Amino acid sequence: MAPGLITASTRILQIKIELGEVRPHVWRRVLVPDAMTLNGLHDVIQQAMGWTDSHLHEFEIDAQRFAPPDEDNDEEVLDSTTATLGLVAGQNSDLSYLYDFGDGWSHTLIVEAVLAPEPGGRYPRCLAGARPCPPEDVGGPHGYGEFLAALRDPDHPGHEELTAWAEGFDPGSFDLAIADKRLEELAWINSA
């Protein structure tokens, strides 16, 4: 995605992203420009959460679905590459984001605040979060629960195999610096 331009008229949305049906909660708090498209927000979610962008996705806002153009999309799906956040979301807006239609990773996004850009500030940014996103292809929320149970229990029949597959996955760890660093490649130019 080509970066955009932060101007004096740009508003910054503070958005909390929470992964649904997963306990303990996995979440991020990000700052994004309101002129960003939903497709750009998809990139932010992927980087901030730690997903690999290997699957399809869509947004739902006020019963309207948004996804990238595709000949398989039905006519009722709107184009996420042209819909900007400022046009579809404002303070206290609730958005849904579904990633990986097979595993069904549902995210709730809440616009917590609308802010003026900070002079010299970099957007998007990750301000806070908790826990890593589950490994890709673990089987959705239900599979992730079973995966965590196997990791915790050395007597579980799948413990050794899943521990090796997980390659050191720690369900309690979250590194804010790493999450924010991944967003640098998406940075908009600040002219404000």
Structure characterization notes:
The protein has one domain: Structural Genomics Hypothetical 15.5 Kd Protein In mrcA-pckA Intergenic Region, Chain A, CATH 3.10.290. The chain has helices at residues 38-49, 85-88, 140-152, 159-166, 176-183, and strands at 5-6, 12-19, 27-33, 57-61, 64-67, 77-79, 94-99, 105-115, 125-130, 189-190. The longest helix has 13 residues, at 140-152. With 192 residues, it is an alpha+beta fold. Strand 7 and strand 8 form a beta hairpin. Helix 3 packs across helix 4 (159-166). The model has no long low-confidence stretch (mean pLDDT 94). Helices cover 23% and strands 28% of the residues.
* Radius of gyration from CA coordinates: 17 Å
Cα shape = globular
Mean pLDDT across residues:
94
Strand line-up in the sheet with most strands = 6-5-4-7-8-2-3-9
Distance between the termini: 21 Å
> What string gives the helices and strands in order?
EEEHEEEHEEEHHHE
The helicity comes to 10-25%
Secondary structural class: alpha+beta
The CATH architecture name reads Roll
What name does the CATH topology carry?
Answer: Structural Genomics Hypothetical 15.5 Kd Protein In mrcA-pckA Intergenic Region, Chain A
Strand content: 25-35%
Instruction: Tell how many strands the DSSP assignment holds.
Output: 10
Number of domains: 1
Ranges where pLDDT stays below 50 over 5 or more residues in a row are none
